[in-house]
Design brief:
Blueprint (H helix, E strand, L loop, with lengths): L2 E9 L2 H17 L4 H22 L2 E9 L6 E8 L7 H4 L14 H7 L2 E7 L2 E8 L8 E8 L9 E8 L2 E9 L4 H16 L5 H11 L6 E9 L4 E7 L3 E6 L2 E4 L5 E2 L3 E2 L5 E4 L5 E5 L20 H12 L6 E8 L1
Antiparallel strand pairs: 1-2, 2-3, 3-5, 4-5, 6-17, 7-8, 8-9, 9-10, 10-15, 11-12, 11-16, 13-14, 16-17
Helix pairs in contact: 1-2, 5-6
Length: about 325
């Protein structure tokens, strides 16, 4: 069984830094990291959260992990703040640099410990991405998914999964009705069904999910299939999951039919769209405002999908529901 999880910790004071460390230790152990790598992951997460507090005035740290059978695990730290931004990124990642007068582990040391360090910064704040491990398969599509619960809830009713095979990438985003445990249960059932049916197309997968969710409160969901060699994106959606494709020609919304999987569905239909070498697909639940716009964020288009998802969550989240976003882009 493939493992995918997301943990969010709000960073508001010094005690939050300790919570981030404890969550990082738990996450690393869940992925089977050895003792050394677990300690490094926890150290970097701790220092990233401290930077969010000291330089950004607070924010969030999102920890994600994924592992497929027979492959090495991949863990990510996304440290998000709404501060003034980093004026000189190369200087900030140089060894020994500190604006807070501390001797803590700086960005330069984090870069050496992690597999990947990427930073997106501007007037809206800073997002630091740290990745441990690399996807085993070098596919033509990069992806990242993020889900965060309704404020005050420990369970998230939004869930996502991506599955890659040679020449084909499948992505699911599901939003269980309501929020809390019952919504999370529906989302988990949708993901489990998706994992069992990855040889099928998007419409068929949604049909299987519809049947499986009859024992739950139900969910809305969308499945996308990308075949880069054929330059084709196939999409099917039920309910208010949004699918948006962006490329050099502009932005276009994908069509979902009304209904609730597991409850009532009038029609499940696939739609095809062009997929090019500069395409980006964003799937998101109604926990994000529908009128988001990435055009003011210079350079974001070319960054890691996790940074794009982080900006969408930070700046366009409604804060009154679970929120989920999956970003896929041509590698």
């Amino acid at each position: 069984m493939e493992i995918v999880f997301t943990e969010l910790v709000a960073v508001t004071d010094a005690s939050s830094v300790g919570e981030v460390r404890r969550t990082a230790l738990k996450s690393a152990r869940r992925l089977g990291f050895d003792e050394t790598r677990t300690g490094e992951f926890a150290l970097v997460a701790t220092e990233a959260s401290r930077n969010v507090l000291l330089h950004g005035g607070g924010g969030e740290v999102i920890l994600t992990g994924s592992m497929e059978p027979g492959t090495a695990p991949v863990a990510r730290i996304l440290a998000i703040d709404r501060g003034a931004g980093i004026p000189d990124v190369p200087l900030a990642i140089s060894d020994g640099y500190s604006t807070a007068g501390t001797m803590g582990v700086g960005l330069g040391a984090m870069k050496r410990i992690a597999t990947t360090l990427e930073i997106f910064t501007g007037k809206s704040g800073t997002i630091v991405l740290l990745e441990f491990g690399s996807p085993a398969k070098k596919e033509q599509v990069q992806f990242a998914g993020l889900t965060v619960p309704y404020p005050g809830e420990s369970s998230c009713g939004d869930g996502w999964h991506c599955h890659q095979m040679p020449g084909r990438t499948l992505a699911l985003l599901a939003d269980g009705l309501g929020h809390g445990f019952g919504a999370a249960e529906a989302a988990r059932e949708a993901i489990a069904t998706f994992q069992q049916r990855t040889q099928s197309g998007p419409a068929q997968i949604l049909g299987y999910i519809h049947d499986a969710l009859r024992k739950t409160r139900g969910a809305v969901a969308a499945v996308a299939e990308i075949r880069p060699k054929d330059q084709v994106l196939v999409y099917a959606g039920i309910g208010n999951i949004a699918g948006v494709v962006m490329d050099s020609r502009g932005r276009r919304s994908l069509v979902s039919h009304s209904g609730t999987l597991g409850v009532t569905v009038s029609k499940i239909q696939e739609f095809q769209s062009e997929w090019s070498s500069n395409s980006i697909l964003v799937l998101h639940s109604d926990g994000l405002h529908s009128k988001w716009d990435l055009s003011p964020y210079a350079g974001l288009w070319n960054r890691h999908p996790a940074l794009i998802g982080g900006v969408l969550l930070r700046d366009f989240r409604r804060q009154r529901d679970d929120a989920g976003v999956v970003v896929l882009k041509a590698a």
